[in-house]
Specification:
The protein is an alpha/beta fold. The chain is 36% helix and 19% strand.
């Protein structure tokens, strides 16, 4: 019942209107279990401009969406994702007291449901070693709204060498001339910087170099307002609903 109520409640807040786009972090993870289909659909229904999620590989080479190396924190089992087959992971419950029986999500299932919807997608690559599997899988789907992101520059570089069309973004902690040079070297489309380190000058410099600028690690409403004012293109936050509601209120107060 709580799940259904949440969907109907939040879908009534389908509010858009800001230049700065909002991505729901691991889906609408404040209100549903992270990286589950419920969290992804909820993000879509509340009008989030995008969904951010995380990618890992199982023991039998299936690409699944989960943040941690292990299932300990987000399921009723324990152990490393890489030590389980996909079928074994399907026996686990990734839900909570309100969302019972949530299953781990396969990348192909996610792309089948969301790659052609009017929603942007950030997929964070957590590990190296299976870049070809990732590229081969992505080629089966529409990628116009999909961006692969990672902290691992060499991983992004390897994917760029395999495919020149996939959109890529680098997760960084601070902006520098050398960072910008590295971004250009592999034709990155997006730069995603920790919110606390972003200044107006840095945002301007990145935009002048034709990068889409996103902020992660956003701490609250005052930070959201600051990031909007300095020209950040996109932010990643645990609840797109909360951000949309706050930005709507800010517009009314102007």
């Amino acid at each position: 019942m709580k799940t259904a109520q949440s969907f109907f409640l939040f879908s009534s807040y389908y509010i858009i209107g800001d230049k700065m786009k909002v991505y729901s972090h691991r889906g609408e993870s404040k209100y549903a279990p992270e990286n589950t289909m419920s969290a992804y659909y909820l993000a879509y229904l509340v009008g989030s401009d995008g969904i951010e999620t995380d990618l890992r590989k199982t023991k039998d080479d299936v690409l699944v969406l989960i943040h941690d190396k292990s299932v300990d924190r987000t399921s009723n089992y324990s152990g490393k994702v890489a030590d389980y087959t996909f079928d074994e992971l399907l026996n686990m419950d990734f839900g909570d007291e309100y969302y019972k029986g949530e299953k781990i999500v396969r990348l192909t299932e996610f792309l089948k449901n969301f790659s052609e919807r009017n929603v942007n997608i950030y997929i964070e690559l957590k590990e190296t070693g299976y870049e070809k599997l990732i590229v081969d899988t992505l080629k089966q789907y529409s990628l116009k709204n999909v961006v692969l992101i990672s902290f691992k520059y060499n991983l992004l570089k390897k994917i760029r060498e395999m495919d020149n069309s996939i959109k890529l973004g680098w997760l960084i902690y601070d902006v520098s001339d050398s960072i910008i040079k590295d971004c250009k070297n592999i034709k990155l489309n997006h730069v995603l910087c920790t919110a606390i380190c972003l200044s107006k000058d840095e945002v301007t410099k990145l935009k002048n170099n034709n990068f889409i600028v996103s902020a992660w690690g956003v701490l609250g409403k005052s930070e959201i307002k600051r990031l909007k004012n300095i020209g950040v293109d996109r932010i990643i936050y645990d609840s797109g609903y909360d951000v949309k509601k706050f930005l709507k209120k800010e517009r009314k107060n102007v």
